[in-house]
Amino acid sequence: MLIPLYVLTVNAFKGQQDILADPFGLGGLTLEPLARALTNPQFNVVKGYAVTLLFVVAVNVLSVVLAAPAAYVIARSPKRRFRVLMLFFLAGTFIPGQVLVIPVVYVLKTLGLMGTIRGFVLFETVLTLPFSIFLYAGYIATIPAVLDQAAAVDGASRLRTFWQIVFPLMRPAVATMVILNTFSVWNDFVNPQIILGPGSGLYTVTTGVYAAVSQYSTDYTVVFPTLLLAIAPLLVFFVFMQRHIISGLTAGATKG
Fold first, then answer.
1. Backbone angles phi and psi of 23, in degrees to 5
2. Which of 29, 186, 212, 218 is the most exposed place for a label (fewest CB within 10 A)?
3. Cα(149)–Cα(233) distance, integer angstroms
């Protein structure tokens, strides 16, 4: 994994002849290819970042609002039907999102959401729910139920108990899912390419890179800098947030 990343980074700062002559070398480094990539008319980097970030924020907010309360009900209820519901959601983790694209296209067309931001955000949100509910429910099970009982004695409703008492305690699990969902939405190519489509005029980072690179696949002074610009924010984000992924995944591993 490190070798391709090294090749990508080094060659993003080299000319065509230097790349062909010595793709692993450090000679001929210059900022000119990266500067041209930033002004490439085929891919507006700033707009691509803005559109993708909009999708990331929208999907994360909707995912938390929908998955967290559902997980709370499942985790706190002893009834069998809620365990069956948990298995139903868990089964969704085994279905590749790409398998659902074509059926979803027909649904979105029927609802008039095909090629729209709303349709894409809803579909991406649905893809995050199975694992989010699974992780949240496991974490909530580690939170003592006596907190809920004490809140009920004080007159708090279940909804208020969840959002004001339980949800603040779920920060490690929520942070983990926000990070994982961010990676998923940022790196997704198939779904925005099909659901949004070139006709919408909206390009995420991945679809924008495809539009910019596909015409110049043999011009490495376009390919490498553009790819580096696409992954750079995600790499920085991962470096600063990776500890939250580990702590969130292990925090709900034991109960007691």
1. -65, -20
2. 218
3. 44
Q: Quick one: tokens of 53?
A: 């970030």
Buried b or exposed e, range 61-85, using 16+ CB within 10 angstroms: ebbbebbbbbbbbbbbeeeeebeeb
Per-residue pLDDT at 98 = 74
Q: Which residues contact 105 (CB under 8 A, 6 or more apart)?
A: 114, 194, 195
- How confident is the model at residue 256, as a pLDDT? 45
DSSP alpha helices (H): ranges in 141-217? 146-153, 158-161, 167-169, 171-187, 190-191, 205-213
Task: Please give the model's pTM, rounded to 2 decimal places.
Answer: 0.82
Q: What angle do CA 170, 237, 11 make, to 5 degrees?
A: 160
Length of the chain: 256
Q: Is 83 helix (H, G, I), strand (E, B) or coil?
A: helix
Separation between Cα atoms, residue 234 and residue 72, nearest integer Å? 31
**Residues 64, 69: Cα–Cα separation, whole Å:** 8
For residues 35-55, average pLDDT: 84
**255 contacts 140 by C-beta, under 8 angstroms:** no
Using DSSP, how many helices (H) and how many strands (E) does the chain show? 14, 0
Distance (Å, whole) CA 227 – CA 234:
12
Q: How far apart are CA 110 and CA 145, in angstroms?
A: 44
